User: What shape does this take?
Amino acid sequence: MYIPRILQLSDIIKEKSYFLFGPRQTGKSSLIKETLSKYTLYNLLDSHTLLSLSRSPERLGQELGENKVVIIDEIQKLPSLLNEVHRLIEEKGVNFLLTGSSARKLRRGGANLLGGRARSRHLHPFIWAELKERFNLKKALDTGTIPSIYFSNSPHEDLESYTGDYLKEEIASEGLVRNIPSFSRFLEVAALSNGKMINFTEIGSDAQVARTTVQEYYQILKDTLIADEVKVWKKNRTRKTFSTAKFYFFDIGVARYLQHRKGLQSGSPEYGDAFESYMFHELKSFVDYNKLGDISYWRTISGFEVDFVLDDIAAIEVKAKSVISKRDLKGLMALKEESSLKHFILVSFEERPRQVDGVTILPWNIFLEKLWGREFC
Assistant: This one.
């Protein structure tokens, strides 16, 4: 069963060459198969194709014919091929779609990144707007929305395999770290810090690695698209803010597996953390798919905090509560005094939308409907 995705590759690939990045199993190959099947495809996971092109990169041009669009899947397996891609873009006007799960190997190996001749897009796990009537919030919060796992009969077993494949194929085989056991310990500690302000020293102590190693490991998570850094929003007028970043794993199911957690109890702190992380996933996907600005968060030294600031336009607080009180609005109200943001929104489990002192309280599903309807842009 194929679920149509928000990202429309067939539209963008006619304009220019693109890198399409995304973590493993987010559906890059399925998206290509369903929407770009008429174009020539080279899959570098196929050993024969990889060997053939590694020996003779010029085969790309020799086999081109009249094709003006070519797809190369898993380009990080053969970074040297980008020199031939560059030549064909320049001399033949070919548009390439180059997919991969990480840009780290390309950058680390000094690969030709095409000098502005290719744009980048990211594919994320399923979002609410793609799953529609198949969306189940409890399932999304517990095991995430990676396509193969969301529809699995054994999602927890598949999450275990997913994490093992990440360590084996992204980390060990690419030689990104020398000590796999220490990186595995770090992954578990980092997952427990998902969505929280990062203290590199404390995480290093818990993971039994040096502080500088923790910083390097977080960079690997970013480069392999497993985690996103969320920095502090500092455009308020007077209140002093923290400067410490947060990190969110790209999928709450992966984070919860690494936390050794299964099942969710409504109303628990664990449920609230998962709900906030899932809303970050929706916001991050929205920003990337619409090529908007960044997502940040706001926290002052005096204790006021707002979960997300979207593209310098909207302040968004997330509460897994069915009854919102004035106390739940204090962060948004403080930021409202400090900034000229256009929207101040609290996402909740209340049944109906309402307004309180300039803050819009929205049920989570109505918030997502308005978000993907671009009402907060």
Remarks:
- The mean pLDDT is 93.
- Residues 9-122 form a domain with the Rossmann fold fold (CATH 3.40.50.300).
- The chain has two domains: 9-122, 128-372.
- The CA atoms of residues 133 and 298 lie 34 Å apart.
